[in-house]
Amino acid sequence: MQKETTIPQRRQHAKYERLIEAAKVNAPLPAAVAHPCDETSLAGALEAYRERLIVPILVGPADKISKLAKAGGVDIAGIEIIDASHSHAAAKTAVALVREGKAELLMKGSLHSDELLAEVTKRQTGLRTGRRISHVFIMDVPTHPQTLFITDAAVNIAPDLLAKRDIVQNAIDFYRDVGLGTPKVAILSAVETVTVAIPSTIEAAALCKMADRGQITGGELDGPLAFDNAISPEAAEIKGIRSPVAGQAQILVVPDLEAGNMLAKNLSFLSKADAAGIVLGARVPVILTSRADNVRTRLASCAVASLLAHSRRSVEPIRT
Question: What is the mean pLDDT of residues 163-167?
Fold first, then answer.
């Protein structure tokens, strides 16, 4: 039997490229980069600077950042470095820069996400608004024609109905503000029928009714929908589901963090998708990258954050 040969496929990043090119139309915005103290996080911030997506302000141990740049042969001349002795101090200082108006974006470096978000969510010194903070993965799936937006797979562990209302509204506002139009939003569950045995189906139906009553605005909602009939027209047709969303969903709202995290990682590792990430609901967009992200994924995260921040310059602050 002849051994099967695997031919590597070149990643095109076509969906990300469109977002990055759209962001380059605008002037780069100052971004406080919290603790960029490994090669990947520093390189990501500097590449976004070279691509004119952000103007980084590097916040962390100055000597360590300088030595890291020198070891990597990276030129950081002209880039502002604010000394902060450790990761916690870097997170606190980066958030303070935003509060003082010196930065319009916040970017995670090599510290843990929880450490940065703890400073973001502090009531007195953080970046809270009246809206629940949530996360969106922007998924570039090679086998799918559209960019998929998955929420929330990183911040809210087991959100209740009111928290899900904010999660949905954050994602809709984000989608519209970056210039993508009116989104089709699928509220996911294991099945597409409402049943008391699966509580997420009841919450999905409630969210759709909230949209009917104007408690969620700006998007077309349907749910509960299983993953297959949310993104596949054929699956929706087989199940006999008739709606503007079924088979065409752009935003996928998951029942909880575990489901969302598994969905995003399945797409990344089995479908070779890339997953840019952004945190919404704070005073400014928070660029939340992963240590596993490649450079193009980090650029896409910076691009959508820039597009969102620029859109907010001409409108009122986030609605509460």
Answer: 98
Q: Which pLDDT value is given to residue 295?
A: 81
Q: Which domains does the chain have, with CATH numbers?
A: 13-128+293-313 (3.40.50.10950), 130-281 (3.40.718.10)
Give pLDDT tens digits for 66-94. Answer: 999 999 898 899 999 999 999 999 999 99
Distance in angstroms (rounded) separating the CA atoms of residues 308 and 320: 17
Q: Please work out, in degrees rounded to the nearest 5, the angle formed at the alpha carbon of residue 211 by the alpha carbons of 176 and 283.
A: 45
Average pLDDT over residues 198-207: 98
Q: Scan for tokens 């088979």, then name that residue.
A: 247
For the residues 29-42, what does the mean pLDDT come to?
A: 94
For residue 29, the cross-strand partners are 54
Can you tell me which residue has the tokens 């609605």?
Answer: 319
Phi, psi for 104 (deg, rounded to 5): -110, -5
pLDDT digit string, tens, across residues 291-301: 777 888 899 99
List the one residue out of 172, 169, 153 whose CA is nearest residue 161.
169
3-state secondary structure the chain: CCCCCCCCCCCCCHHHHHHHHHHHCCCCEEEEEECCCCHHHHHHHHHHHHCCCEEEEEEECHHHHHHHHHHCCCCCCCCEEEECCCHHHHHHHHHHHHHCCCCCEEEECCCCHHHHHHHHCCCCCCCCCCCCCEEEEEEECCCCCCCEEEECCCCCCCCCHHHHHHHHHHHHHHHHHCCCCCCEEEEECCCCCCCCCCHHHHHHHHHHHHHHCCCCCCCEEEEEECHHHHHCHHHHHHHCCCCCCCCCCCEEECCCHHHHHHHHHHHHHHCCCEEEEEEECCCCCEECCCCCCCHHHHHHHHHHHHHHHHHHCCCCCCCC
